[in-house]
Specification:
The complex is a heterodimer of chains A (289) and B (764). By secondary structure, chain A is of the alpha+beta class. Chain A has eleven helices and 14 strands. In chain A, strands 4-5-10-6-7 form a five-stranded antiparallel β-sheet. Chain B has 764 residues and is of the alpha+beta class. Classes of the chains: A alpha+beta (289), B alpha+beta (764). Bound molecules: flavin-adenine dinucleotide.
Chain lengths: 289, 764
């Protein structure tokens, strides 16, 4: 490991300035649970590390009629300990509860999980299901990107040099809605998703029909993605095994998994369907209250 | 958990306990330091003036080394020394006895620092010492190595074919029975054949015959503490090594041989050890650290990281095994045949010998043939791991047995009771068992609450498996000093991995009629105690315990003689019983006589040694319930019970700990652990995230049933306990998975993708 500079600015402008000015490799740091490991193992050689945790905008956690604002550096434990998030945005609560163990959850952020752009990131499918927007600040101002457009490949995203994620914004939740995230791992702890599925459903007042749905898939392609056809298939359909199985089959049809030390292509494809079914059912259960 | 104490209580036994100290559960002598973090492990060792080393490792699985240029590394400020194989003496073709069997010195030396070839990814090529670790690492990356990359040989069967690239030009196939060697370079280092009876007739007599092929993956011991060595090559030529090791004396002889220095110039100081399981016997870092220290003139410490540990130490082999077994209509085994090929890794030396002896060790088989091969592949040089070679073999045999039971419609426990090895059974390799306790472990399982509680849930299943391990005797030494306050300091050379300090002190205390707390045991360096073989082969409680017993006999003799002198009576009138010296007209307790003798003569010290080879083989039988998710192939363990014959449980809690720990490692091996290689021969999961040892969330409480069939070959009936419990789990799990969802798994690990694959195959 080579020596590097460390800065902990207290304003967004300073952070953007530091990152934009840096001539070498500059990287923002939230919880550091990915970054520190990358530096330690030599995957990343950094000249400047900019700690974002002292910037108020990145620590926002606000839930009201306008929806949810989640600062990019808010640690997981604050998310799953928030009763409103648990009730209305359960999928993101589920994800925050799964990422690492207690020590990791005390530091790790959803912003870092997203920015790291891992194919198996546990919060991204939930963010996709909940239709989050990514608010980005950079040297040339602020911009917004839909979360399913954010990752561009393994470890790659739309951020330009000097840009950072400020927060994630979620639309308000309609009545009779529910969401869930679940992953498959070979052990019961300490593993990376072999398949991850996030789903959000909105039901009609009877609770018997889908109004709309969004399904996000992780670990089954080069990046987490929105399973559009499977999601749209559910809209207007009755809630029953047959509809849900159809959506699961549609999800299975769009995956492009690889075989690696975590699972085979066959396994990932099959389990995408299995989890999609299980996750939709759980989201329905939550929507029905 | 059914403990031995509870079992005895439940049986309403009112006979007086045989022992006072043995069978109790005193607090371990090293406990406070371990739970408060004060114990000094390898990386806690800090020696004045110490600098830090880093190793440059091969990025290729198989390559010739054309050249090594260290000039840039040497020029980096802060670098104090650089070493390559050129700094180690030429090993020639010597074969050395190093306390872990005979070793071709050239292979051991080349494994420490590669000479002409690298034989696996992570193979050490050069070493650097610098003022701090970061400089050392950067310097290592500046060393330029020119490789000629060769095709990697990763599969044991392909490695055996005549057109496979040969890893070691000096290896010839050795016929184990005659010692004769072949004349062509090959990857097959050894060929073993054992035969008994008439195998053709045996199979002809069979009503059912089952023949299956099995594969198992390379797996690692997974000890938490990485390897570390700190070495000072002093100006006077004395070399001191501080390291966590299973065998200080083995490290001493390895260092003397590899560095060509007299044995007496090397002193090895044991650190506390954070797990070994067989993997901390060979040296990996100390020779390089020694050379660096000689060059730099100061102590050098080298610590591995997890990737180094997995890629460059000594895992246990992957294997290919074919098993054929036949039974008659009554369920009696008539014949058995095994063909086994074990991956040695880069250099010869897989535990194929033990595997071939263990493969049918649980059964009384009239006709049999076992053929085994030791095969080099481009993976790390394998090393011992808890009952080395036996788990692979038991997985194969026990699975075939389970299939035979199904054909016969026979309860697996009953089948085993009918065919079990017992006193007088002759194994296929020719050994005849003394009194052993396999039948008793089967009965213990049959009588367990677990066995009597039927499973009711969907996709749930139950499996059983048995296993065997020889255990070892070998040499041990103990020295004791009686202190003036009546306490006893006990010095031993067996590094303590499973609480053996206390187990040895307890045997000494029992023999002396003292309390465990009166004894102060210490594991000391190679200059401070008599020669002691490795902590391995489940031998320490047996052998070093016996040495402690002998030290007690020596001490008692001295006390009697001295008391007689003191009291001015005929020594024949003095005896030592139950913690007291008894004369014609008085009885004095140990404490008092210790104090009195200290003021009336020379200091009171005693010694004991042992070198016995009746360790009494040990058997275990495990019972497991699982639930399989039919949609994902994930296996959850619902309940687990392990019964094991341990001869006599000196400290029952440590025996239970060994049984539980072994079972857990076997479960990991069975379900998820594997070296996952890509096509270039690179291990892709060299970390504890993707090399999946079970976590506490993956395991139920392991119920340990201690069965005591005393070993006639030990003063207290001890048998080794540490290794057997890793042997049955994969087989028991396989049977349970089959019982739950009706698919057979012939390959380890039985990970979710494999189980799901079989389930999908069955469906279509
Ligand atoms: C033991 C352990 C277990 C883990 N288990 C899981 C798991 O189960 N599931 C899972 O998905 N992950 C897991 N991880 C990975 C990691 O914890 C998560 O990805 C975490 O969410 C990362 O968040 P962080 O705040 O620590 O990010 P950091 O490490 O601080 O940053 C991650 C990356 O994002 C960049 N970054 C951070 N914040 C911003 C920002 N605001 N704007 C732009 N770029 C930014 C950084 O420069 C870096 O490249 C685990 C890690 C460890 C060490």
């Amino acid at each position: 490991m080579r020596d590097f500079e460390y800065e902990a600015p207290t304003s967004l402008a300073d952070a953007v300035g530091l990152l934009a000015k840096s001539k070498g490799t500059a990287r923002p740091l939230a919880g550091g649970t990915d970054l520190i490991d990358h530096v330690r193992t030599g995957r990343l050689v950094a000249d400047l590390i900019v700690d974002l945790k002292k910037i108020p905008e990145l620590m926002v956690l606000e839930l009201n009629n306008a929806g949810l604002r989640l600062g990019a550096a808010v640690p997981c434990y604050k998310i799953y300990e928030h009763p409103g998030i648990l009730e209305q945005y359960s999928a993101i609560s589920d994800s925050s509860n799964i990422i690492g163990g207690m020590q990791v959850q005390n530091r790790a952020s959803v912003g870092g999980n997203l920015a790291n752009a891992g194919a198996a990131a546990d919060s991204t499918p939930a963010l996709i299901a909940l239709n989050a927007r990514v608010i980005i600040a950079g040297p040339s101002g602020t911009r917004e990107v839909a979360v399913d457009q954010f990752c561009t490949g393994p470890g790659q995203n739309v951020l330009e040099p000097g840009e950072i994620i400020v927060e994630l914004q979620f639309p308000p939740r309609p009545a009779h809605s529910g969401s869930h995230y679940r992953r498959f791992i070979p052990r019961n702890e300490m593993d990376i998703a072999v398949v991850g599925v996030g789903a959000s459903v909105v039901l009609d007042a009877s609770g018997e029909n889908f109004v709309s749905a969004r399904i996000g898939l992780g670990a089954v392609a080069a990046k987490p993605f929105y399973a559009q056809e499977a999601s749209e298939l559910l809209a207007g359909q009755p809630v029953n095994d047959e509809t849900i199985q159809k959506a699961a089959a549609a999800a299975r049809a769009v995956v492009h998994p690889i075989t690696d030390m975590r699972g085979t292509q066959e396994f990932r494809t099959h389990v995408t369907g299995v989890l999609t079914e299980r996750v939709i059912k759980k989201a329905v259960e939550r929507a029905r209250g | 958990m059914a403990t031995i104490d509870e079992v005895k209580a439940a049986e309403g036994s009112d006979e007086a306990p045989k022992y006072k100290v043995i069978g109790t559960r005193p607090i371990r002598h090293d406990g406070a330091d371990k739970v408060t973090g004060r114990a000094l492990y390898g990386a806690d060792i800090k020696i004045k003036g110490m600098i830090f080393g880093a190793i440059l490792r091969s990025p290729h699985a198989h390559a010739n080394i054309k050249s090594i240029d260290t000039s840039k590394a040497e020029a980096l400020p802060g670098v104090r020394a650089v070493a390559t194989s050129a700094d180690l003496p030429e090993p020639g073709d010597k074969i050395a006895e190093l306390g872990e069997g005979a070793v071709v010195l050239n292979h051991l030396s080349s494994n420490n620092l590669a000479r002409t070839k690298v034989l696996y990814k992570g193979h050490a090529v050069a070493a650097v010492a610098a003022d701090n670790l970061h400089i050392a690492q950067e310097a290592a990356s500046l060393i330029e190595v020119e490789y000629e990359v060769l095709p990697p040989v990763m599969d044991v069967l392909k490695a055996m074919s005549s057109d496979a690239p040969v890893l070691n030009p000096d290896v010839r196939t050795e016929e184990a029975s005659t010692g004769e060697k072949g004349d062509k370079p090959t990857n097959v280092a050894k060929h073993i054949v054992f035969e008994k009876g008439d195998i053709e007739k045996g199979f002809a007599d069979a009503k059912y015959v089952v023949e299956r092929e099995f594969r198992t993956s390379t797996v690692h011991q997974g000890y938490i503490e990485p390897h570390v060595a700190t070495v000072l090559w002093n100006n006077d030529g004395q070399i001191t090594v501080w390291t966590p090791t299973q065998g200080t004396f083995s490290v001493r002889s390895q260092m003397a041989e590899l560095l060509h220095v007299p044995l007496a110039r090397v002193k090895v100081v044991p650190a506390e050890i954070g797990g070994g399981f067989g993997g901390k016997i060979s040296v990996y870092l100390a020779p390089a650290a020694a050379v660096l220290s000689r060059k730099a003139g100061v102590p050098v410490q080298i610590v591995m990281d997890r990737a180094d540990v997995l890629q460059a130490t000594g895992p246990t082999p992957g294997s290919f095994i074919r098993i054929k077994m036949g039974v008659d209509a009554d369920g009696r085994l008539t014949a058995a045949e095994a063909w086994m090929a074990y991956e040695a890794g880069g250099y010869p030396g897989s535990p194929i010998g033990a595997g071939a002896m263990c493969v049918f060790s649980c059964y009384d088989i009239p006709n049999g043939r076992v053929e085994g091969y030791d095969v080099c592949v481009n993976k790390p040089r394998t090393n011992a791991y808890r009952a080395p070679g036996a788990t692979n073999a038991a997985f194969a045999t026990e699975t075939v047995v389970d299939e035979l039971c199904e054909k016969l419609g026979m309860e697996p426990v009953e089948f085993r009771l009918l065919n079990a090895s017992k006193e007088g059974t002759r194994r296929i390799d020719g050994v005849t068992y003394p009194r052993v306790g396999l039948v008793e472990t089967l009965e213990a399982i049959k009588n367990s609450d677990h066995y009597k509680t039927p499973l009711t849930g969907k996709n749930q299943g139950r499996g059983i498996g048995s296993g065997f391990w020889f255990n070892a005797g070998l040499k041990s030494a103990v020295t004791v000093t009686v202190n003036t306050d009546g306490s006893v300091s006990l010095l031993e050379g067996s590094t303590d991995i499973g609480g053996s300090r206390t187990g040895i002190a307890m045997q000494f205390a029992e023999a002396m009629g003292l309390a465990a707390e009166d004894i102060k045991p210490a594991v000391v360096d190679t200059d401070s105690v008599g020669y002691t073989d490795v902590t391995g082969g489940s031998r320490v409680t047996y052998a070093t315990g016996w040495a402690a017993y002998e030290a007690a006999q020596d001490l008692k003799r001295q006390i009697v003689a001295r008391a007689a002198e003191l009291w001015d009576v005929d020594p024949a009138q003095v005896s030592y019983e139950d913690g007291h010296v008894i004369g014609p007209d008085k009885s004095v307790c140990f404490k008092e006589i210790a104090m009195e003798l200290s003021t009336t003569g020379e200091p009171l010290i005693a010694r004991g040694v042992s070198n016995h080879n009746e360790p009494g083989g040990a058997f275990g039988t495990h019972l497991v319930d699982v639930e399989v998710d039919p949609d994902t192939g994930k296996v959850d363990i619902l309940r687990y019970t392990a019964a094991q014959d341990c001869g006599t449980a000196i400290h029952p809690a440590y025996v239970e700990g060994q049984i539980q720990g072994g079972a857990v490692q076997g479960i990991g091996w069975g379900l998820n652990e594997e070296y996952w290689y890509d096509e270039t021969g690179s291990m892709r999961n060299a970390n504890f995230l993707d090399y999946r040892i079970p976590t506490c969330y993956d395991l139920p409480m392991i119920d340990a049933i201690i069965v005591e069939v005393p070993n006639p070959g030990h003063p207290y009936g001890v048998r080794g306990v540490g290794e057997v419990p890793i042997v049955p789990p994969p087989a028991a799990l396989e049977a349970a998975i089959y019982d739950a969802v009706g698919v057979r798994l012939y390959e380890l690990p039985m990970s979710p993708p494999r189980v799901l694959h079989e389930l999908l195959k069955k469906e279509s």
